Amino acid sequence: MNQLQSIDRLSLNQITTNRWSLKEAVEGSARAEVPWIALWRHKIEEIGLKESKRIIRDAGIKVSSICRGGMFPAPTEAERKERIDDNRRAVDEAAELGTDVLVLVCGPAPNKDLSGARQIVADGIEELIPYAKERGIKLGVEPLHPMYAAERSVIVSLAQANDLAEKYSPDEVGVVVDVFHIWWDPDMFKQIARAKGRILGYHVSDWIVPTPDLLMGRGMMGDGVIDLRPIRLAVEEAGYKGPIEVEIFNQEIWDQPGDDVLALMKDRYIKYV
Amino acid sequence: MNQLQSIDRLSLNQITTNRWSLKEAVEGSARAEVPWIALWRHKIEEIGLKESKRIIRDAGIKVSSICRGGMFPAPTEAERKERIDDNRRAVDEAAELGTDVLVLVCGPAPNKDLSGARQIVADGIEELIPYAKERGIKLGVEPLHPMYAAERSVIVSLAQANDLAEKYSPDEVGVVVDVFHIWWDPDMFKQIARAKGRILGYHVSDWIVPTPDLLMGRGMMGDGVIDLRPIRLAVEEAGYKGPIEVEIFNQEIWDQPGDDVLALMKDRYIKYV
Asked: Signal sequence: where (chains A, B) (predicted)?
């Protein structure tokens, strides 16, 4: 019931085909008729913004989001300022590439002071908003799984992301919902409902068992234990009807030919998402 | 400030010296003048309950807890009943060995129905209480880190453990606070305070960076990013003055001579806990 009827919302988060360059990922998406792509900044950097833009336009592919801004907490004031500057560049790239969402992975603490780092994140978002707003870019706070708290993000739950976002207009700050990061949370459905009107992205993958690795252990939809459909329906109930990104860090998947990965991804998207 | 002044609350959770048998761990603790030990049931089983009891009594070591009961969710009604029976045996062992705490690691879901599994946990605890109470054993619900949600415990936050415990008298059900499992939680201090009068155990270790492995990645106190002292003070503020278990799953530590591990553990306990 409530199965998706087409792939018109499907987006390839290009980390899923990590061996592919930006050009290969965009052309691969076009071949597979996957209409959306989410770009990573290090892939854009390899060929430059102008060339990236040309490739995307020529292929007729739409950009669902840019990964990633954020990483606010730094040990010194000077470094924190540098990171804000880098976030402004990410905003410019997002605007240039025709998406209105910059995903924020907020960063780990530079020391043992978790709550201090969380305040630096809040301050960083506050500082970034005017620049982003002028360029039509919304900031999407993506909570990461708590197992990344020490190395990637002090924002570890959708509740926290909602707390950060709710201080602002939905035109300024929203949240990004990734099933891999929040599926375990007893509060998940409540927090998805609370994010109504503020969900800026929806990411799918699966949690595989046994979990081989903290970073590289994500699975293709249907290969793990996450009951995906009710989550997608809840996200839609909360007003999000935009692109659905498939974002998978997994060496076995990375080692497969990209075209095969896209074929499998399309199939699983209809079956499980 | 507020440093511990002695090791009179220090307990060796015997998984920390996993190569040692129960006898070796108890005698090692006695040599190191560590007054408490937490026993694992598979170690008790190797030599039997009677012999375990004799060894502990002869060494003059006190038992802080028995690991573990729990594991309630099972695919069939018959298997769920078997697990309750096994929990009753764990209660008997705890009573026989002179502790009043049985730690509950609540178990993963047998399928994709997380909330169903959480209900089975609640039902299992409800069913176990009368038997445990008659034998003077309190049930200590230990929330595990969310990264274990698929394989070890659908109870993943202290908030959840408190929800489960608060339905009962503190003589029946409480919570076990383990820093490794909850240090990332923005709600941690609030939930520790909420657990006032119900904390039945406190476990320490550290979160090391980079984290080498989901299961075997714990570190010795001081080797990681957890700010331990404020957590211990909060636990004491919430009324817990009992034994503090050092529980470390880490191959490098397991490979060291047990006496060296205990010496290091005592030193780090005073410095960091």
From this structure: none
